[in-house]
Design a protein that fits this description.
Number of helices: 27
CATH architecture of one domain: Roll
Structural class: alpha+beta
Radius of gyration: 35 Å
Number of strands: 14
Strand content: 5-15%
Length: 722
């Protein structure tokens, strides 16, 4: 149900426990929705207290007094159990009952959000940050939407019955013969994936309600044959396009203001060129870490010592994985293919540990539709190992399985069904690990050598105040030429992009104390090595004179005038070109390049022009040889275009696909109608005050998350990669 539904766990709303037993029975009992809240807030031992009360009711003389006593004790237990301190935010999030949002009478707790976050972190192996997933706000928004859908379905009488829930679970957890896999296996499977049976059954109940609501909302949606055909033509027609991008930068190059115009602009806008901070020109000695490392000798003994230090996990090349791939040729065959996959899983899991590998290999050879792996018993060409920089959503899960395990249900991936079996771990030999170890060790040693050399260089520069002399002294050890070791910046201030260094807070920090010529700063890590800075000249905050900023003034005037003239220039080029063939001459005459794109399809990127619905509309309206008389605005640019050849879609092929295309368009339109409907319901509930998100609680969740350092930030010294 949207981004957040995948494996969401929702702990407060507990479902009817008898659903489990109904899965093993042919008869379902119906319990009214109104009775569910009694299960929501059932404190520990309440069941035992009720039984004891019934027994005590038989005692005539003491019944009243004892019942009153027990009622008092139970009230006390409820107060203690739900005391505010127990639900406060100082509990770990996964257990916190603090409310972060409310939809109608339904509460969304911190614990629900925390469990949802944990599920996603597990899905991605802990290799993503909350920010990359959209933050806690996105999780809360998704849970709110789920509650909106469930409540709207209930309002329309479309909630799922217990029988429907049990029936769907039976079908999902059936073996090849169609029989329920059994209560124990069902419990184990859903607990492993969803955190608990109740959470999973809540998910199933909500999914059924959503299906009913969607069917109700979209029942009257239809598409005509003409709409389907027109969409097919737009999607499958291709065009040979010639176009010119009329950009500000290109036009600015052609604008040459006079010195008098520039001086006039400068006098009127002096304050815009103010330099509010001191500027410094720095000369520095640079030590390249990689070049320092190249000269170092790394023996086989050093590498073997490194190899022995590796953890057992890092001594593995990965794990062996076998797979069976079952392709879904058509959407209507999906359920049939899934059922076949379940049958193969049943056979694979029935094998003994001793024969499991061979049984799976035989099944792969006879059933897998991946020729490359099927002939090898389903084995992938290389062992599978998690890569923190590249998540593999299909195969990474096998690393967490036990040797010999087979996926207990078919895995849907890329529109097809997969069955995976994990084999034994594959050890990594010393020779296989050697290149990686050499790079890592050389990098670390190079870092150490460069750091020591930079420290010596810092001391010598403070003594000599002569960067060139220091470079000559250290060049041999640095494995560099003196000329490439001495570098100089232009006048810079904090925040500037420094040539060869970039925008560096560390570099800014070490030059900040330098105020007099020949002051030498501490060594600091920069891109690729170390820098030892020395101040050459300092300029105080000021409004610079015209000559100092003449280039910047010229660029500003050129850009400003180009923006004013851009649309008119695009219209002049479009009107001067009589046809698509003439566009090249007209554009190049004005200093703009013309590009071509063969077999362009609507919706794709048109080279440097980019993507735009307006571009597609203009192209689709053109006949062979025509040019658009009105340029098209795309972002900050204008595009003049023509079609040299138009290749119409094959309507004979359309006739073959008409039925499938109609279903696809209908589904797309239904999805849009449904999403618009839910958005409108949610908006109405917000306006009625039925949706509340407690921003302070949400903010505390965000604050509790460890800060992720931006990848662009550098440490004070370069850090070895391994």
């Amino acid at each position: 149900m949207g981004f957040e539904r995948t494996i969401a766990a929702t702990g407060r709303d507990r479902l009817n426990h008898h659903l489990l037993s109904s899965l093993q029975s042919d008869h379902y009992q119906t319990v009214s929705v109104a009775r569910l809240p009694r299960l929501l807030y059932n404190p520990p031992f309440a069941g035992e207290v009720i039984i004891m009360l019934k027994l005590l009711s038989r005692m005539e003389r003491t019944r009243g007094i004892i019942i009153v006593g027990f009622a008092f004790l139970m009230a006390v237990s409820l107060i203690v159990f739900y005391a505010p301190g127990r639900n406060s935010s100082n509990l770990e999030p996964a257990k916190s009952t603090e409310v972060v949002a409310k939809v109608g009478k339904d509460e969304i707790t911190v614990a629900e959000v925390a469990r949802l976050k944990e599920n996603y972190m597990q899905m991605f192996g802990g290799r993503v940050s909350i920010a990359q997933l959209g933050g806690y706000k996105r999780f809360v928004d998704g849970l709110v939407r789920d509650r909106v859908v469930a409540q709207e379905a209930a309002r329309l009488g479309l909630s799922a019955s217990d029988g429907e829930v049990a029936d769907k679970i039976r079908k999902q957890f059936s073996d090849a013969s169609g029989q329920f896999v059994g209560l124990q296996r069902y419990k184990e499977s859903v607990t492993a994936r969803y955190g608990g049976v109740e959470e999973f059954e809540r998910t199933v109940r909500d999914e059924i309600a959503q299906e009913k609501l969607r069917a109700f909302v979209t029942a009257a949606v239809k598409v005509s044959d003409d709409e389907v055909q027109e969409d097919y033509k737009r999607t499958n027609s291709t065009f040979d396009v010639t176009y010119a991008v009329i950009s500000v930068d290109k036009l600015a190059e052609k604008i040459q203001p006079s010195d008098q115009e520039l001086k006039g602009y400068y006098e009127q806008h002096k304050a815009e060129f103010n330099i509010p901070e001191p500027q410094k020109k720095i000369r520095y000695v640079y030590i390249d870490q990689s070049k320092s490392g190249e000269k170092l000798q790394v023996s086989d003994k050093d590498l073997r010592d490194e190899f022995e230090k590796l953890t057992p996990e890092n001594k593995q090349a990965g794990v062996k994985v076998q797979q069976i791939l079952l392709k879904v040729a058509r959407k209507d065959l999906d359920a049939q293919v899934e059922q076949k996959a379940k049958g193969l899983i049943e056979k694979a899991r029935a094998a003994s540990p001793e024969t499991g590998e061979k049984v799976f290999a035989d099944l792969a050879r006879g059933n897998s539709e991946d020729p490359a792996t099927a002939k090898n018993g389903g084995y992938l060409a290389r062992p599978v190992k998690k890569n923190p920089n590249k998540v593999d959503a299909l195969y990474d899960r096998t690393v967490d399985m036990q040797p010999g395990d087979v996926s207990d249900i078919p895995i849907r991936y890329g529109g097809n069904w997969y069955i995976l079996r994990r084999g034994e771990a594959v050890p990594k030999t010393f020779e296989e690990a050697k290149p990686e170890l050499l790079a890592s060790l050389r990098n670390r040693k190079g870092y150490g050598a460069a750091a020591k050399l930079a420290e010596r260089g810092q001391n010598r520069l403070k003594e000599t105040k002569d960067p060139q002399k220091v470079a000559q002294e250290l060049a041999a050890e640095a494995n560099m030429k003196p000329g490439e070791m001495v570098k100089e910046t232009p006048f810079i201030k904090p925040g500037d992009d420094v040539p060869d260094i970039g925008s560096s807070q560390q570099f800014e920090a070490v030059i900040a104390p330098l105020n007099n010529a020949n002051d030498v700063g501490e060594r600091t890590g920069v891109k690729g090595g170390f820098a030892i800075p020395m101040l050459i000249e300092r300029k105080e905050p000021r409004i610079p004179d015209f000559e100092e900023v003449k280039t910047k003034v010229a660029e500003t005037v050129q850009q400003q005038r180009a923006k004013e003239q851009l649309e008119q220039k695009a219209r002049e080029i479009a009107s001067s070109a009589g046809s698509a063939a003439d566009l090249k001459t007209a554009a190049e005459k004005n200093g703009f390049e013309v590009a071509t794109e063969a077999d362009y399809k609507l919706g794709a990127a048109l080279g440097k022009a980019g993507t735009s619905p307006s571009l597609d509309e203009a192209i689709y309206a053109l006949k062979n040889g025509e040019i658009s008389r009105s340029p098209v605005k795309v972002g900050d640019t204008w595009v003049v275009l023509g079609v040299t050849n138009r290749h119409e879609a094959d309507l004979a092929e359309f006739a073959k696909q008409r039925e499938q295309l109609t279903r696809t368009m209908l589904s797309t339109r239904q999805n849009q109608i449904y999403e618009d409907y839910i958005s409108a319901v949610q908006q109405r509930m917000k306006q009625d005050g039925k949706i509340k998100v407690y921003q302070a609680v949400l903010a505390s969740l965000e604050e509790s998350e460890p800060e992720i350092q931006p990848v662009t930030r550098r440490p004070q010294f370069p850090i070895p990669t391994k």
